[in-house]
Amino acid sequence: MHRIIKEKLPRHIAVIMDGNGRWAKKNTLKRVLGHEKGADSVRTVVKTCRELGVQYLTLFAFSIENWQRPKSEIRALTLLLEKYLRTELQEMKDNGIRLITIGDSGRLPKTVRDALFRAIEETSENSGMILNLALSYGGRDEIVSAVKRVLKDSKSRDIDENTITKEFFSSYLYTANIPDPDLLIRTGEEHRLSNFLLWQLTYTELYFTDVLWPEFSRDDLIEAIMDYQRRERRFGLISDQLSKE
Ligand code: FPP
Q1: Ligand 1 atom index nearest CA of 83
Q2: Which residue's alpha carbon is at the smallest distance from atom 18 of ligand 1?
């Protein structure tokens, strides 16, 4: 049993899944086995979030910087992703999970893109939970690409400096229509954002844990959510203002 307060559940949880390589090293295994074990943690976290009633789960599965890793590791990661998409599709359908993606997915190998777009299409009517995979994603790249699209649109639409509000700009990001994360979890000892959701994390509660991603369990997730529920989110206001609302 857990002591999660249903009314204070984070609507959107984002996760930087770090530490697969170090977990493999610690267990004298090849890095790819760390990623494979990491895929099991993905299954656990998706399942638990769905059970708890979390509405949006965003997972940082492949960063734009990850393209610089050795070719063999990129291949292993993309194959693993393709396998995950194929084997989990039925599970997603059975549990009302809708898959979406953010990032430059056009750079992924064709076989992965095919599996990805099939899963996106076949789950598009689901409304139980949105599973958002950040693939070939970079926060600064997202902002630059949004600026470029605003500029492009300004040639055919009436866009001037007064049009450009925070809401307007947000609608050009990959995450248009997705609420900002309430809670960001980063596993694997490091305390940084690594170019993840730079615009969207402005008021997000940050939770760092030393647990390496392949060892991140259901209980670890519940602990992170309970920690979040003990915090007071003020959004720049003072405590008294919040209680009057
Ligand atoms: C960080 O570990 C993790 C990644 C680069 C990718 C995340 C991928 C998975 C969890 C597996 C597959 C994903 C899905 C959605 C099925 P690292 O290699 O940076 O670890 P290290 O910092 O210890 O070397």
Answers
A1: 16
A2: 21
| pLDDT for the residue numbered 238 | 87
Q: Is 177 a catalytic residue?
A: no
Helix or strand or coil: residue 200?
A: coil
Q: How do residues 208-227 score in pLDDT, each as one tens digit?
A: 999 999 999 999 999 999 99
How far is it, in rounded angstroms, from Cα 207 to Cα 241? 25
Let me know: does 223 contact 3? Beta carbons within 8 Å. no
To test the pocket of ligand 1, the residue of 26, 29, 35 to mutate (highest count of ligand atoms within 8 Å of its CB) is 35
Catalytic option among 18, 141, 182, 220:
18
Query: Is the CB of residue 20 below 6 angstroms from any atom belonging to ligand 1?
Result: yes
Q: 180 an active-site residue?
A: no
Q: Residue whose CA is closest, atom 8 of ligand 1?
A: 61
pLDDT in tens, 180-211: 999 999 999 999 999 999 999 999 999 999 99
* Nearest residue to 204 via CA among 148, 124, 139: 139
CATH of domain 6-138+180-243: 3.40.1180.10
Determine which one of 66, 95, 126, 195 is catalytic: 66
Q: What is the pLDDT of residues 60-69, one digit of tens each?
A: 999 999 999 9
